[in-house]
Specification:
Number of strands: 6
Radius of gyration: 20 Å
Strand content: 5-15%
Strand order of the largest sheet: 1-2-4-3
Distance between the termini: 31 Å
Structural class: alpha+beta
Shape: globular
Length: 288
């Protein structure tokens, strides 16, 4: 599982529960939990699953309720909003966000980090605007997180949402099937023109950065090497400060478009290398 999940899970615990819940949670997990969680790393699924069960014991909140609340929190919290800006800038409704999540998760599964993001299928044919059917069949059976994420998508865009779970793996079905209907709220959330312009500028900059990266067959480039490439193209030093380049690379990474050596042994930020991830699955022997 991507490190962003683990980092936001602990943020959720610290903001949802007052007092020393997070400390008690970490103490109970002990060595099973890394001392420092990094959003750029990949961690074992079992750490989160064990962590949710532990949090439920500490707080007396049922596991399914924790998972649903976390799914909603994951979509609406500031860290996700910042790191996933490349995706979020392109969507303007809860329904569009779910479709973008599907595409991003599919793309992230192509990264060479062993990621298995929660893939779901959808049907939109013959449905009215705002309607969508999602089919989820992950062996993790974290359908409560998906339900919370759907609610979070509606909340993010100031919409109302109606969710009907027709089938569920936890009730013995082969997959979970959600019928969803988004509707506009009386309170519409709108960006100011200045905010929209800033986001579009960041989007264009990230897209340009992506065009300069080597493909997945190369060694990749470091932050310093990328800065030199941009300088040779006449870009002002103020526009290619490491912090700005790193922000663009992170946005592209969380869209599944850039791979890194973050999970390689001995990696550090100074020597980390970046390259374009493949945007389609390699052909199999059956398709040749």
């Amino acid at each position: 599982m991507q490190g962003l999940i683990f980092v936001t899970w602990e943020k959720y615990l610290s903001e949802r529960f007052s007092g020393s819940v997070l400390k008690e949670y970490r103490d109970k997990l002990g060595k099973a939990l890394p001392t420092v969680l990094l959003a750029s790393r990949v961690y074992d699924d079992n750490i989160l699953l064990t962590g949710v069960a532990t949090a439920s014991q500490i707080t007396s909140v049922p596991v399914e309720m924790l998972l649903r609340e976390f799914g909603r929190y994951f979509i609406t919290n500031g860290l996700t909003r910042h790191l996933c800006a490349y995706i979020l800038t392109q969507v303007h409704s809860g329904r569009e966000l779910l479709l973008a999540m599907h595409d991003a998760h599919e793309q992230m599964s192509r990264l060479p980090d062993g990621l298995t993001p929660p893939l779901f299928q959808y049907t939109a044919r013959n449905q009215k605007p705002g309607e969508l059917t999602l089919i989820y069949d992950s062996p993790r059976k974290l359908c409560s997180v998906l339900m919370g994420a759907i609610e979070g998508a509606a909340e993010r865009y100031g919409e109302q949402v109606r969710i009907v779970e027709r089938t569920c793996m936890k009730r013995g079905n082969s997959a979970c099937r959600f019928e969803i209907r988004f509707s506009a709220s009386s309170t519409e959330l709108l960006e100011t023109p200045e905010q929209s312009e800033r986001q579009q500028a960041k989007q264009h900059f990230a897209h340009y950065i992506l065009s300069l990266l080597p493909d997945n067959g190369g060694r990749g480039v470091t932050l310093a090497e990328l800065q030199k490439r941009l300088a040779l193209r006449g870009m002002q030093l103020e526009r290619i400060r490491p912090a700005l380049l790193l922000e663009a690379l992170r946005h592209l990474h969380y869209a599944g478009l850039v791979a890194t050596t973050a999970n390689h042994m001995g990696d550090d930020l100074m020597h980390r290398r970046y390259w374009r991830a493949p945007t389609s699955d390699p052909p199999t022997s059956a398709s040749l």
